[in-house]
Amino acid sequence: MKKYDIYGIGAAIVDTEVIVSDSFLSDNEIGKGLMTLVDEERQKYLIDSLTTQRIPVKMSCGGSACNSVVAASQFGSATFFSGKVADDEVGVFFAKDLNKSGVEFHQVEPSNGVTGKCLVMVTPDAERTMNTNLGASLELSYREVDEKALASSDWLYIEGYVVTDDQRTAVARDAMKFAKQNGVKTSLSLSDPFVVEVFSENIKTIIGDDGLDLIFCNGDEARSFTGTHTIEAAAEELKKYAKTFAITRGPGGSLVFDGTRLIQTAGVMASAVDTNGAGDMFAGSFLFALGQGKDFGWAADFANAASSRVVSQFGPRIKAIEYISLKQQFNL
Prior knowledge:
Blueprint: E1 4-9, E2 13-19, H1 22-27, E3 35-37, H2 40-49, E4 58-62, H3 64-75, E5 79-82, H4 89-100, E6 103-106, E7 115-122, E8 128-135, H5 147-151, E9 153-159, H6 166-181, E10 185-189, H7 193-207, E11 212-218, H8 219-226, H9 231-238, E12 242-248, E13 254-257, E14 262-265, H10 278-291, H11 296-311, H12 320-329
Parallel strand pairs: 1-5, 1-9, 2-7, 3-8, 5-6, 9-10, 10-11, 11-12
Antiparallel strand pairs: 2-4, 7-8, 12-13, 13-14
């Protein structure tokens, strides 16, 4: 019996969510709907420029994989997370918020720099635009990987954002290799269309010659990674990289492959307020459902429902009562 259901690795970032106008994005030459890496100075300038929304709507421990393991933990999975924060106020907040969510956090020693922060700018159409300063997350090393905890996990889940530099790509590659050698199932999220476009070779390094057990991506990421123009063609190509996969399609539900057949699941109607964290919630709830012994179609329906709850409110988390009501809805 494994001690943990999911072991996540990714950037340890504190999400600070604010509401902005479209003109704020254009005035500051910010690419709408994208995740852009910025330095500390640029991020501070943007925060200081905020006139409409000086007080964050929400602050939470974040980063893509972190959001997913928090979601799984809130549903009832035993989870573990590896990331790197600094010895600062924001780093202390991250560790406390993560532990409060029921996730065990592994860090050898804090960095002397600054903890990563993501400024999440939400426009009136619910689109989220992220400017991220990775801070201490850039210093993630294999020392942050707790091999004992990883070997005692059912799944390893890594976010695709780690591929933006070679050092963290190597950490992810080595963690995947260790997981495979120790009978731990491997999963990866492609995370972002831009990341896939620019760093696809690094993603392939993490996947390795023998592929992964499960890949998560959205339609844009799937097409970009496989160099195809349709979801159907992308799905065929993805089979070369993973035994199974899940392609999210927003309101269009999801297309999942369970190793034998492709299953199209319907989306759940939601009035979108903020799309931040929808993909992270999908992955976390999907892995939770698999841990409950559910099949891919069931897991996708459950994950679609959970994601629809996230987009209808601010921030990448849903309230504790919502996790309970989702489990009741699906008779868990």
